[in-house]
Amino acid sequence: MGCSFLLSGRLPSVIVAASTSSIPGEPLADIFDRLVDLEYTNTELVISKRSAILPSQIAERYEAIVQLRRTSRRIVPVAIFFDVESPPDDPSDPKYLEYVEQFTHACQLAKNCNIAVITIHGALPESSFNGEIDRLQKLVKIGVYHGVVVGVATEAGRSMDTPENAVSLCKLVKGLGITLDPSHYVYGLSKPKDYKSLLPYVCHVRLRDTTQEQFQSRVGQGSVDFGRLVDLLKNEDYRRTLCVDLAPLPDTDPMAELRKMRLLLESSL
Fold first, then answer.
1. How many helices (H) and strands (E) does the chain have?
2. Domain 4-268, what fold?
3. How do the domains of the chain map onto residue ranges?
4. 24 membership: H or E segment, kind and range
5. Which of 52, 159, 176, 251 could cross-link to 123 by cystine, CB 3.0-4.6 Å?
6. What pLDDT score does 91 carry?
7. Residue 121: its pLDDT value, please?
């Protein structure tokens, strides 16, 4: 394995989950109920300014969220996506200090919900490489303190926009993981990027079907080879989550798409 931290918090086998952002505009308890109706038993909690959990409200809603996790026995939160933009690493910047405080609250929430992985965004191009290393080292240190693995999403236009950059950052920042989102290595490219080199560092996976022309296509109409992806992950002894992340598409039934994606992934396991 590329990183020994991957041994921490692993599951007996690969599981399928759905992101809470796949059902937008509803309270968290209702999202849980909808996902249970679709026969999901695991979920990823999304924390963002557009989600059921706002970054500014983690602390005040902390007890309610933990209690909901304990009472919602039919669905289990297994990951957190901290979908918040990070200002540059500047200890004198109040916005950066607020970001670190909110991230710390998210890690505390993860710890008390028995969640092992938290995903963050990579830095935007205007951030320096050394500044990104400093930022990630600080966030990984906070994660380790709370027993949480920090994974950076592989997103176009950010610090992990190529497999080479992703691997380089993981080698430089001890304990850092990768949240693989294959869509960003397919969409908008004349040829999909080969991401096999980063698989030993993967701690979480976020999925949707994708074409070179559409970031999200209808399930089954894209070019993502989910069976091959699962096989590659199994070769790395990956035992964590495949998380479905679907935005509602025009002229489609979002609940039907979520159900189809679950069945597609489960059939690949």
1. 7, 8
2. TIM Barrel (3.20.20)
3. 4-268
4. none
5. 159
6. 75
7. 97
Instruction: Work out the burial of residue 94: count CB atoms within 10 Å of its CB; fewer than 13 is exposed, 13-18 middle, 19 or more buried.
Output: exposed
b (16+ CB within 10 A) / e for 233-264 = beeeebbbbbbbbbeeeeeeeeeebbbbbbeb
CA-CA distance, 151 to 204, in Å (whole number)? Answer: 7
In 3D, which of 50, 3, 44 has the Cα closest to residue 25? 50
Q: What is the largest CA-CA distance in the chain?
A: 50
* Residue appearing with tokens 């599951």: 11
Which pTM does this prediction carry? Answer: 0.93
The 3-state DSSP class for residue 23 equals coil
Tokens of 101: 């405080």
| Helix (H) or strand (E) segment spanning residue 61 | helix 58-71
Is 130 a residue whose pLDDT tops 60?
yes
Bridge partners of 206, per DSSP, are 243
The 3-class secondary structure across 78-118, one letter per residue, is EEEEECCCCCCCCCCCHHHHHHHHHHHHHHHHHHHCCCCEE
Mean pLDDT of the 75-95 span = 89
Structure tokens at 244: 């479905």
Token readout for 235 is 């070769």
User: Is residue 62 very low, low, confident or very high in pLDDT (cuts 50, 70, 90)?
Assistant: confident
Residues with Cβ within 8 Å of residue 55, at least 6 apart in sequence? 47, 48, 49, 82, 84, 102, 106
Q: At what angle do helices 163-172 and 129-145 cross, to 10 degrees?
A: 60
DSSP secondary structure letter of residue 53: B
Neighbours of 71 (CB within 10 A): 9
Check pLDDT > 70 for residue 185: yes
pLDDT at 11 over 80: no
